[in-house]
Automatic annotation (TrEMBL), chain A:
Family label: Belongs to the leucine-binding protein family.
Protein name: Branched-chain amino acid transport system substrate-binding protein
Classification via Pfam families: Peripla_BP_6
Signal peptide residue numbers: 1-26
Highest taxon listed in the record's lineage: Bacteria
Keyword Transport set for record: yes
Residue intervals of the Leucine-binding protein domain: 44-380
The keyword Transmembrane is annotated on this UniProt entry: no
TrEMBL record, chain B:
Stretches that traverse the bilayer: 6-27, 34-55, 61-79, 91-113, 141-159, 189-212, 224-248, 260-279
Membrane topology, from the record: Multi-pass membrane protein
Chief place of localization: membrane
Protein name: Branched-chain amino acid transport system permease protein
Subcellular location: Cell membrane
């Protein structure tokens, strides 16, 4: 019954094929891996988008890329800048700071003019020193206050910081709603920690200390212990500071454990991924602080949402809108500065006053261009403005 | 008290899933002496396949699971076939081969299903049971029930059927097994496809509890692997005990140490492995390299 041994050459050939296949397929999955140099003053203007395309933050990276690409495509259709096309190239940072720093070095050596992204503050923070040294302006989608603390003149945010999100939220919950018993659950990643600190500070400033303050890890899957503690405190509202999927799991499990209090949070709680993960019934009444509540907010957002839907067949949301604004600010600055690079481009971005989907951008020295969010509530699976 | 029990319930339901993952790891290891590093990614493919048949093709959940198990079982056969020429020749290359397959499966999942994952609604609509203030999700009961059936089924197969006995024989001594006329290659293929089927079962069941995306394998794989180690690599009862232990340990660590729970979980795991390197049920270390 035993098999006749194959001649060794066949064996080796099979292995070689397998290895080659593996390598080839792995290479396919990592976009943005060629090295072509272009001169600074002619040919296409090279802009990099760095966002996670794999890993747990890949949906975030996907939205960001789609928003940025939409803006660039529109500019290219109008003829580019100074007759030069804009070349957008996507790099996958896997949501990993180490991968991010490697990409930053690559951008510097391949002379990219500017960078859009990343969606994860920790990655942007890791990349910032390299980009600052190479004088590559970066418009990030991160919102951590740690970004501002870097004081890099080349780093700009395409949205408000956690402080803005959470002080607006705390103001609404404590002043307008009069909630006194607030529970907190946040994760220990860079986003969650930022949310934790910003909300805690804002709430304490308004004279309310949380009745319980639970911290979970970023890859935790079972929240029974933390949620049972929250349930025993009978809070009026639960503040949640974590990314889309984890926040969705927390709310889903909380409802199963019999917690009926509404949840409140920042940008991730307004996204479809959060709503789908938790389920429509579970997220009803969730209070969200966001600069972009819905696609129907204004004529500009309606136009953006229609273009987004036409290009990708999916509904636009906050992150795509943020990236679209960020890309438009960069392209406007490139136009006004006649495709400048380095310090001149950074100055041009700082001087750009832009009326965007999120509001009116006007950058100060900190790199923050917008400091306002509004309160929305999830009703019937959709985020609507609070009346 | 209520909190302690609630934490236990939460830990046990995820522990049942880790146990299934650990069983797949152990089955392949005891038969071939090989750690299949693609195992967790096969579970991820299983989760995607089950959710696709359930949500897109609108099949009943149980049928969708069965189809997913068959699909991933076939993937297991393909992996084994490609690696077969290396069996008993180059063990290291075989290990690296399974790692390569894991990467390929992740890339394939992104190509097919995209980067944005999907949420799977629970197929059991019944509200959670309330037992003296401890809430038990009905779906979790289903998961634990199915996992228990899978354990019993596998134990029965290995102990009572001819093929199962042949696999046991190959696990003990593959040369002697060949001498008495057992087809080692076929036995290995069977182990690989049953292992892949178990992975699909774990992935499909965990879909409605978590969120299905290409990185799901990472979450299941590390805990499942640790569970197999803790129980004794290669032991089926060990995989079950290890899986439940890791699930419960993880839950309690999360409750007491909050942000440091992962650190604590794996510190306890490391100490346990140092005290008993063969795991709870491991009486020998298999070395087939």
């Amino acid at each position: 019954m035993s098999r006749i041994p194959r001649p060794p050459t066949t064996t080796r050939a099979t292995v070689c094929t397998a290895v080659v296949l593996t390598v080839a397929l792995a290479a396919c999955s990592a976009p943005g891996d060629s090295s072509s140099d272009s001169k600074a003053s002619s040919g296409p203007i090279k802009i990099a988008v760095v966002d996670a395309q794999s890993g747990q933050l890949s949906s975030l990276g996907d939205w960001e890329y789609k928003g940025a690409k939409l803006a660039v495509d529109e500019w290219n259709k109008k003829g580019g800048i100074d007759g030069r096309k804009i070349q957008l190239k996507l790099f996958d940072d896997q949501g990993d700071p180490t991968a991010g720093t490697n990409i930053a070095r690559k951008l510097a050596s391949e002379k990219y003019v500017a960078m859009l992204g990343t969606a994860e503050s920790a990655v942007t923070i890791a990349m910032a020193p390299v980009l600052q040294q190479a004088k590559i302006p970066n418009i990030t989608s991160g919102q951590s206050d740690g970004l501002v603390a870097l004081k890099s003149p080349y780093l700009f945010l395409n949205g408000p910081t956690s402080t803005t999100y959470d002080s607006t939220l705390a103001q609404y919950l404590i002043k307008d709603k009069g909630y006194k018993k607030i529970a907190m659950i946040t994760n220990n990643g860079s986003f969650g920690t930022g949310e934790h600190d910003a909300f805690l500070k804002a709430a304490k400033g308004l004279g309310v200390s949380p009745s319980t303050d639970q911290v979970v890890t970023t890859d935790q899957k079972d929240f029974s212990a933390a949620l049972t503690k929250i349930r025993s405190k009978k809070p009026q509202v639960v503040f949640i500071g974590s990314e889309e999927v984890e926040a969705g799991l927390i709310v889903k499990q909380a409802r199963d454990l019999g917690i009926t209090a509404p949840f409140a949070g920042a940008a991730p709680q307004g996204t479809p991924v959060f709503i789908d993960t938790a389920g429509k019934a579970a997220v009803e009444g969730t209070i969200v602080s966001s600069p972009y509540l819905s696609n129907d907010a204004s004529d500009a957002s309606k136009k953006f949402a229609a273009a987004y839907k036409a290009a990708y067949g999916k509904d636009a949301e906050l992150h795509g809108a943020k990236a679209y604004d960020g890309a438009n600010i960069l392209l406007t600055a490139l136009k006004t500065s006649k495709a400048a690079t380095g310090q001149d481009l950074a100055d041009a971005i700082r001087a750009t006053a832009y009326k965007g989907l999120l509001g009116d951008f006007a950058y100060d020295d900190t790199g923050v261009g917008i400091t306002k969010t509004t309160i929305g509530v999830i009703s019937d699976g959709k985020l609507v403005a609070q009346q | 008290m209520q909190e302690t029990l609630q934490t236990l319930v939460g830990g046990l339901s995820l522990g049942a899933v880790y146990a299934l993952v650990a069983m797949g790891f152990s089955l392949v290891y005891r038969t071939m002496g090989l750690v299949n590093f693609a195992h967790a990614d096969i579970a991820m493919i299983g989760a995607y396949a089950a959710s696709t048949f359930y949500l897109t093709s609108k099949l009943p959940f149980a049928v969708a699971m069965l189809v997913a198990i068959v699909v991933t079982g076939a993937i297991g056969l393909v992996i084994e076939r490609v690696l077969r020429p290396l069996e008993n020749k180059d063990f290291d290359l075989m290990l690296i081969g399974t790692i390569g397959f894991g990467i390929v499966l992740q890339a394939v999942a992104i190509l097919i299903w995209g980067t944005t994952g999907r949420a799977v609604p629970s197929p059991v609509r019944a509200a959670p049971l309330d037992l003296f203030g401890v809430r038990v999700r009905t779906y979790d009961l289903l998961v634990m029930g199915v996992a228990a059936l899978a354990v019993i089924g596998l134990a029965w197969f290995l102990a009572r059927t001819k093929r199962g006995a042949a696999m046991q024989a190959v696990a003990m001594d593959h040369e002697a097994a060949t001498a008495v006329g057992i087809d080692v290659g076929r036995s290995n293929a069977l182990a690989f496809s049953i292992g892949a089927g178990l992975a699909a079962l774990a992935g499909g069941l965990v879909g409605p509890m978590l969120y299905v995306d290409a990185s799901l394998g990472g979450a299941l794989g590390i805990k499942g692997f640790a569970a197999a180690m803790l129980g004794g690599f290669g032991s089926i009862p060990g995989a079950v005990v290890g899986g439940l232990a890791i699930g419960v340990l993880d839950s309690y660590a999360a409750g007491h140490f909050q942000g440091y729970s992962v650190l604590v979980t794996f510190l306890v795991f490391t100490v346990a492995i140092m005290i008993r390197p063969t795991g709870v049920f491991g009486e020998r270390t298999v070395s087939r390299a």
